[in-house]
Amino acid sequence: MQVDVIGVCKDYATVRAVDEVSLSARGGEILALLGPNGAGKSSLVRMMVGLTQPDSGSISYQTGDVASATLATTQFGYLPEDRGLYLDRTVQDNLRYIAKLRGMARDDAQKSIANWLQRFDLSERASEPMRQLSKGNQQKVQLIATLLHSPQLVILDEPFSGLDPVNQEFVLSVLEELRSAGKTVILSAHQMALVERMADQLVLMNRGRVIAQGSLAEVRATLQPQQSIRVQFADTIDEAQLAELEGDMNTVVAHPNNTFELTCGGQIDLAQLLTRLQSLAPVVQFSRQHYGLHELYLQAVQA
Ligand SMILES: Nc1ncnc2c1ncn2[C@@H]1O[C@H](COP(=O)(O)OP(=O)(O)OP(=O)(O)O)[C@@H](O)[C@H]1O
């Protein structure tokens, strides 16, 4: 299924929560929404699953040749930010209830529930009230409730929150499995290292707006992060000479062994910089630090 969000805005009383957001999520792809608290991620996903309506713009869904402005409950699974299962009811009762809401036949529901409980290592907890489970295990039951009817579109608001590293890895593998099965996966998350490993498309939001989107390489190109360069000269150099280059640099930090850490803007011409450095003394090492998603994100939202 393809989800197309075009120029969507959403206002609450005094705040524009979502501001002219456009994106396309496709089958067989994981799209990750990233952004600080209050960036508008939950407001956006709530509109994508039809819980609220955009004030302007449009959201449409395409399955094969069939386009629609709405989703049937069987077509999507949604993990809400404020989790919604009944704490006094057992794990099994909760999941049966959700399966019924999703239109599953009793036998299919039972099989799917048993299968997912086993995969999430919760089979033995099936008859316990939700309240007795740890936060992480409650979260796993919520995930099962989202996936048990095998929806084409899976939308997860912070699926990793409350999970320990082992369970985060497990959920990551489940999401990759969904992608391999051709499902459309949209999630919001704060765990950059996990997102960087799995997402095909990133949508970085801040104050309701998209500030960068695309693959990690495309996001990097859009944000043009600062470059951090390490240079080592063969001989001692006159630091005053290096300082003359400082017009181009944000910072120059000296280290032992004629080594310097240079920080400069994203657009600097590295070949030209190297030539200029070589005019000071022979350069024996010249390397650029690789920025991961975490650093890109921090630079972007703190700008
Ligand atoms: N129901 C609501 N009524 C009024 N304001 C709201 C409502 N829901 C969200 N907001 C506001 O809209 C903005 C975006 O909030 P939203 O929850 O979408 O952000 P988020 O990116 O999901 O944040 P978080 O990472 O903290 O979950 C915030 O300023 C928030 O206070």
Automatic annotation (TrEMBL):
What terms describe the molecular function in GO for this protein?
A: ATP binding; ATP hydrolysis activity
- Give a yes or no for keyword Nucleotide-binding in this entry: yes
Which SMART domains does the annotation name? Answer: AAA
Q: This protein's superkingdom?
A: Bacteria
Q: Which PROSITE patterns match?
A: ABC_TRANSPORTER_1, ABC_TRANSPORTER_2
Q: Is Hydrolase one of the keywords UniProt gives this record?
A: no
* Domain ABC transporter, chain residue ranges per copy: 3-232
Q: Which keywords does this Swiss-Prot/TrEMBL entry list?
A: ATP-binding, Nodulation, Nucleotide-binding, Transport
Q: Which family does it belong to?
A: Belongs to the ABC transporter superfamily.
This protein is called what?
Answer: Na+ ABC transporter ATP-binding protein
Q: Which organism is it from?
A: Pseudidiomarina aquimaris
